[in-house]
Design brief:
This protein is of the alpha+beta class. The protein contains 20 helices and nine strands.
Length: about 775
């Protein structure tokens, strides 16, 4: 359909697109340069004054599991150029970019892949009907398709997997069985979740400056609240920002000129939109790199001024804040009392129930995996098998299928009514952020367990002593997990409440307050104008008016045992210093240190073991007859290979798939999978720890040994990741708070792109009040 692009995107229209994109980017980068100085000052001030919170109890991985394959297997992909379905070997590396190869042999021969998909900004659909509905809404209403007309997409099976993006191209996959659909749905969702979170969390200046600039720019266009397309890295987010303005204009001009049946017009618009998105992406990338380099060159001079005049800048800012507070506070307090305060408890309750359930599920999955490993180490050779089991356990947090039962708890989050009142575009922002927290806490628990067990193995325990040591270490790690998960959840709740309420307050106050802000500019010394902005200070004052109510609401929730949160007074300050010293050692390679078999066998299979170690879940063996037959690596560490995951056999060739197409099957819309995915489970059910005690002032809990597993109450701890627009709180007032703000390693290296596809992270906006407290909202 090259003629479609040449017809509707001629030279004059391409020139208009380039000019419009340049104008939007110019306006945005003015906000970015302003916010860069503020973010730099806030970062340096916190570095000097910040004391942080209590130390986290769990360790975190300083060396991430790079060069690992998260998942692999076979999928059928629909190729739009020849309108045929082809079998593809699909692989998900550690950066969560979906890689498609012609087949497995092409992967093994290191032939370049057919496509690399960065899934940021995409939605995963399992229903053709739902997809056709979204596509039908992409163009203005035209002639209704005739009954019996061929749809834009015909899937030969009942189990499609469609990647839909509002601006970029779409990808169509299908599988032959429902278990396969559930498995790949979990994998794709994990890819989207991590690619969406594309701005590194350890970026203390560039990240906050960018997200603040996005928020300020959208507010200048009267767009408050969360933004669902805040997805991916900076270039992808900016491309989405441009398309949000440019897309409707092009649609109104191009759609009346498009010819053909409704289905054909839909295909044409998808192609046109994707072509425009690629043009915008390339132009945005060049502009952003230039502005980023400009700010980086100016940074040393700004740092010198900040170090020299830190006290004067702080004094000037506090004076400005006091003047703005005197003007704003009476109006803001009335607005908070009438429109926000009555809804805080209900918002918090809606957030806490699914989040608590998710955290509890993380705890239960970790307990079960370790207990299964312990039982199998006893029954299957002791320490000789330990390396194999620990290699699998170390990757538990990155296993999309095993973690799915934790992630899906957040699907229960409902904000109906609140979304309309507070202008929350989608609850997915909070869901995905909580899910990312879950993965981080699982990995922290696993890594802490690894470190303690490795230390214990240095003592040369017997088989019986090893069993007791594993159980004792498990209890120790669970206590630390309960404390850290409580800390993370309370921080997440405060962030979410601010993300919901602050934009609402700013929008309410804008008509009476925003026009008066320019008169406060004269209170800022010219030398400090790069580090103090009236707009930022105004927002900090508004934030302070509601912060007290939010802090109190979270503190009250911690007192209720049903939420499984520690009280603020129960703080374990650096309770285990020796453990943190262990984390300074070299990363553990379980496969090398504790591999079973004779030295000769190890030498012969070294390359095979190296490749297998890289795969968390599945790379199908050559001997496997069916492309969807489960691989032994998908089994739980405690499951013998002769007990595969119960996936039903399915056709394995494109020829059979064509046969299904030839029958002109009626497409059925599958039910979205809500049940937990089929995970390999141990042949034994093992006891799990009870709900931790919260009454001891030391923050310790009862031993989980010899107890039956506790059922996750409707309000038990859990967490899922916020993926889209919302802006998390970076630092909050720490009065009597037990939260920890230690830096976390970034795991979202989503460098792969497919022809300029969009992606989106969650927003991080940094503000600072007159006391020097930095916050994000």
């Amino acid at each position: 359909m090259g003629d479609v692009l040449s017809t509707h995107l001629d030279d004059s229209r391409r020139q208009y697109i380039a000019e419009k994109t340049g104008k939007i980017l110019k306006d945005f980068f003015q906000f970015y340069e302003d916010q860069y100085g503020v973010a730099l000052f806030n970062s340096m001030r916190y570095e000097i004054e910040g004391t942080g919170g209590p130390q986290a109890q769990l360790l975190w991985r300083k060396v991430p599991l790079d060069e690992r394959v998260i998942f692999s297997g076979n999928l059928f992909q629909y190729l739009e150029d020849n309108k045929k379905w082809r079998n593809r070997f699909s692989l998900v590396p550690h950066n969560y970019g979906l890689v498609l190869y012609e087949n497995k042999a092409a992967y093994e021969r290191q032939i370049p892949p057919r496509a690399i998909i960065n899934s940021a900004g995409y939605k995963i659909l399992t229903s053709v009907d739902h997809y056709l509905e979204l596509v039908g809404n992409s163009l203005p209403a035209g002639p209704a398709p005739k009954s019996g007309a061929a749809p834009i997409l015909k899937c030969p099976t009942q189990y499609p997997l469609i990647l839909w993006h509002p601006y970029s191209r779409h990808y169509y996959f299908c599988v032959m069985t429902e278990p396969e659909q559930e498995k790949w749905l979990a994998v794709f969702q994990d890819c989207v979740r991590h690619c969406n979170n594309g701005i590194p969390e350890d970026s203390k200046v560039e990240g906050p400056a960018f997200t603040d600039a996005i928020r300020m720019y959208r507010q200048s266009k009267e767009q408050y609240g969360t933004w669902e397309m805040l997805c991916g890295n900076e270039v992808q987010i900016l491309s989405n920002l441009v398309m949000e303005e440019l897309g409707p204009e092009l649609k109104s001009v191009i759609s009346p000129r498009m010819k053909g049946k409704p289905q054909e017009r839909q295909r044409q618009w998808i192609q046109i939109s994707d072509a425009v998105y690629r043009m915008v992406y390339e132009q945005t990338q060049a502009h952003f790199e230039a502005v980023a380099a400009k700010c980086e060159m100016a940074r040393p001079a700004m740092e010198s001024v900040i170090r020299t005049d830190m006290d004067q800048i702080i004094t000037s800012k506090e004076h400005l804040a006091s003047k703005i507070r005197a003007f704003i506070l009476p109006k803001a307090e009335v607005c908070v009392r009438n429109h926000v305060q009555p809804y805080i408890p209900s918002i918090l309750e809606a957030l806490m129930i699914p989040t608590s359930q998710g955290f509890t599920e993380v705890r239960d999955v970790f307990f079960k995996e370790v207990t299964d490993m312990n039982l199998n180490v006893i029954n299957e050779g002791g320490i000789d098998k330990l390396g194999e089991y620990m290699e699998k356990l170390s990757q538990l947090a990155y296993h999309p299928v095993k973690m799915q039962s934790c992630y899906e708890k957040m699907d229960q989050l409902k904000l109906e009514g609140l979304q309309q009142r507070f202008d929350v575009s989608s609850a997915s922002v909070f869901k995905q952020r909580a899910q990312i927290h879950m993965r981080e806490q699982m990995d922290n628990a696993v890594y802490t367990f690894e470190t303690l067990l490795h230390q214990e193995l240095g003592k040369g325990p017997t088989k019986e002593d090893l069993c007791k040591s594993i159980q004792r270490i498990l209890e120790r790690v669970l206590k630390k997990y309960d404390y850290d998960s409580s800390t993370v959840r309370k921080k997440f709740f405060r962030e979410a409440l601010l993300q919901i309420t602050i934009p609402f307050l700013l929008k309410k106050l804008a008509p009476t307050c925003k026009s008066e802000l320019p008169r406060f500019q004269e209170l800022i010394f010219e030398d400090f104008a790069r580090f103090i902005l009236v707009e930022n200070t105004y927002e900090e004052v508004v934030l302070q008016t509601v912060m007290k109510d939010i802090m109190q609401a979270v503190k009250d929730a911690a007192i209720q045992r049903k939420h499984n949160l520690y009280r603020d007074s129960m703080v374990m300050h650096n309770s285990d210093p020796n453990l943190h010293l262990l984390a300074e050692g070299v990363p553990i390679d379980w496969g090398e240190e504790y591999s079973s078999g004779s030295p000769g066998e190890a030498d012969l299979s070294a390359e095979k073991r190296r490749r297998a170690k890289q795969v968390v879940s599945v790379i199908h063996d050559d001997e496997a007859g069916l492309p969807y037959e489960p691989c032994p690596e998908m089994l739980s560490p405690g499951v013998p290979e002769k007990e595969p995951i119960p996936y039903s056999a399915s056709p394995d060739s494109v020829k059979e798939l064509r046969g299904l197409l030839a029958k002109d099957l009626q497409v059925e819309s599958p039910q979205s999978a809500t049940e937990p995915l089929a995970n390999g489970t141990s042949p034994r059910e093992s006891p799990q720890p009870p709900e931790p005690e919260r009454e001891k002032s030391s923050g310790q809990q009862a031993s989980p040994l010899n107890h039956t597993p506790h059922e996750p109450a409707p309000t038990v701890a859990g967490e899922e990741a916020i993926s889209a627009p919302a802006t998390p709180i970076q630092r909050l007032p720490s009065e009597e708070e037990a939260d920890t703000d230690r830096p976390k390693p970034s795991d979202k290296e989503t460098g792969e792109e497919v022809s300029g596809q969009g992606s989106h992270p969650y927003v991080q906006t940094t503000t600072e009040d007159s006391t020097g407290v930095q916050t994000e909202f």
